[in-house]
Amino acid sequence: MRFFGRRRRRTQEIRGEIDRHLQMAEQDRTERGDAPEEARHAVQREFGNLDLIHDVTRDLWGGRWLEHLLQDIRYGARMLRKNPAFTAVAVVTLGLGIGAVTAIISVVNGFLFRPLPYRDPARLVVLHSRNLRGVLAWMGNSLPDFDEWRGSNHTFEGMAAYAEDSFNLSFNDRPERVQGTAVSASLFSLLGVAPVLGRGIYPDEDRADGAGVVVLGHDLWRHRFGADPAIIGRTVRVNAHAYTVIGVMPPEFKFYEFADFWIPLSGYAGTALRDRGARAYEVIARLKPGASLEQAQAEIDILAQNLAHSFPQTNSGVAVDIVRLEQERKEFGSAIPLLLGAVGFVLLIVCANVANLLIARGVTRQKEMAIRIAVGAGRLRLIRQLLTESIMLSLLGGILGVVIALGASDLIVASIPVKIPFWLKFKVDGRVLALTFLIVAITGLLVGLLPALDASRMSANDQLKEGGVAPGGRRGRRFRSVLVVSQIGFALVLMCGAGVLIRSFLRLQAVNVGLNPTGVVTMHVELPTGQYPQPRQVNAFQNRMLERIQKLPGVESLALFTSAQELANALDLPGQGTNERRDAPPVNIQSVSPDYFRVMDIPLRSGRVFTDQDTATSAGVIIVSELAARRFWPRGNFIGQQLNVSNTNLPDTLLTVIGVVGDTSQPGLYSQGVGLRAGLDLYVSLAQHSGRAMTLAVRTPAPPERFAAGVRTMVQEINPELPIFNVQSMERRVFGGLWPLRALTQLLGIFAGVGLLLACVGIYGVVLYSVSQRTLEMGIRMALGAKRSDVLKLIVGEGVMLAMCGAGIGLIAAFALTQMMSSLLFGVSATDPAVFLGVAFLLVATALLASYIPARRAMRADPMAALRVE
Amino acid sequence: MKVRYQNRIELLQGTLDLLILQTLQWGPQHGYGISQAIRANSGEVLRVDTGSLYPALHRLERQKWIEAEWEVSENRQRVRVYHLTGKGKKQLLTERSRWEQLQDAIAGILSPAKGESKA
User: CB-CB: which of B2, B50, B59 is closest to A47?
Assistant: First the structure.
């Protein structure tokens, strides 16, 4: 501020000094006998351009650029205010583009760049056991292996094992399903995060016979326990066992993905503590300061080899990989580059559009520019002035964009139907804002540069002449045509991308998955082992539950099922040897109640389905899908075939095939891309093989949540500690895994729509401008006998010509670019001709409309009035 | 256009600076007084363009060769009066000797016969 004060004083001083000079000169002249009037004129003539002398003299003292910048900003603000319609259109357009980019950046930021809420997360690593031989490459770690690693390494500061699971948590007789993690006592100190209330887990609590203690997550503590500090020392029930609350973690803390409470690992693991074959645990470790990943890996390799030597039964062929925790969490789909590309295109279209507006306005400001040149503004100064204006526009657009992005990122999060791991936060944070600001600045320059060059390149003389045809104007028109063509090209690429995705998504949803998911509601119940130790008790519960729910209104049919995947290794399946191929269809084994096939609408091909006569004491039975049947018994004659079961507690060691049913398949995003995966489906009887984690499926016209409320009451009448969770329609269960694809399709669809709209605005603007420029020409043509329809054709033809050029370029670009999405497509080629042609047609048709509207104006023109304009 | 104006100042600069410094050697003077003195002492030949004078005065002031103060003139009006500083006196000597060198050089070129006959 001192700078400005000094500068103002200097200006006044110079002004005073020169005024004095003029007075003295005038006085001298009058003393010599000139008339006062005459004297003043003579002096002023002699002195020349006063303002210029002021300026030049003052500029000797520096500080000029800042003055100019402030001047430019003030002037720019005045211009923007004077033209509210123009400003609004430009700001909203820029806001849309910048908002879209910011929203996508905040998503990418959530995926890639958010630091984990632990101390020095760069030193945290996870250890994975990898099977070098079998089909399943990735396995968990066993706890005896973990003890060995922890005891004999030199590169790690600490190591902890954990297992994330979901539990029935009950407090004051209100049961709920909550995600929790069983952890080594050392975990909290390893991560470097201390509880905000109470304490962490003591080492002597992390023993097989240790006390049941639980540390609560902040969210759980707030929502479930009303943030009551007196909760410490109280008892909650986890899977029907009593646990004492000993601490509460800080708000940001989560571990590993979703868990909201932590219990000691040893009590949870039970016999797995000493079972080297029980590979169900994850291991996290902290590298010593200065220790490299390579050193740690080398050391672990030796430990793994030693273990393989000592325990060949369980450890031969097992390697251990160390991965940085940050790396582990940065995995992302191929969708991110696609999204960034699409949103970049949207921004380019926006830039082209606003540049177009600016060029058009530049034409209306030609006189103003000419005057500024005539009074001595240099070309650089003009360009700077115009760039200041465009950057101001883009700043306003940026502010609007951030507001849009704030709303949009909430929408994006809300549209994700699955639980998001805590470290994925789509927030507009400082980093996103900084990047947005950079984009705003670049956008401002990009948008303003062409129009500024165009507007400043004119000569003052040309412009001041009345009605002179500005060379700048003609060049401006060419610039604008190029801009519109590129805009249409970009829009076409976006539309092609969105078009193929939409087509593929529709195909995928209409696909026959082998069962009819419509009208089926599903929900989960899990019985704690402690309360239901015997299969007999589980069966009794299941029968009671089915009986009761059957009576609820609106039930057409119902079934219970549970995964029996553990049988996969116990069943002696013909032709499924150890030489299993990697691409072989997966074996799905489910244990189902008799009505399962009716509820799911899976057709029976031969034999029979389960009945109430198949009980725990009757002969073992199994139903197979057609695909499985043909694979196991290629020569046919499926019914009556028998399968050996080894190593289970099933009543019979032989299962007899009693029926063959239709195949089912699961649509999803697989490593080879989007598609349907048919499995070898095997069904055993729930009465003969019951599981505690079960799913209830009911065919009913009732909406899922309302129906679930009835079920909840029923189940809690049987056992008040049992929560009902994961209520969803069968459609969601089948197609829910496709949500990233759906979200991507929606986003790309929105982008394409915005792109199309903006491109049309561009065409409209160019044609409208050309109409206004060619009024005279049209008047002459019509005076010479051209029909109105001829004029219409001429003008519309111009717009359509631009659209066709853009569409042609766009088609070529789209042909090259959409190939990158191949893996995201189902049943549609990345260059689907129907989509490409359809989109091009749609675009040209819209362009036709966009140029018809202004063309009608030209057509209506009265030839005489048009001639008189000039 | 501003650029062209400044170029002209640049051309005159050396001479104008010398003239201003020399004028101020006879005593403190305001801008108008300086222009009148130059005009009178040159026998009305040299007229200082006022558009060059004030930029030049402020440039010399910035170089600290001259200093300015607001004083009250004989007819009780505030005027900005310049006077030479010590640094300015040294500068005047430098400029003078440079001017004399230039004068000799130009004279040598303009009347070469004199130089040749001497040799």
Answer: B50
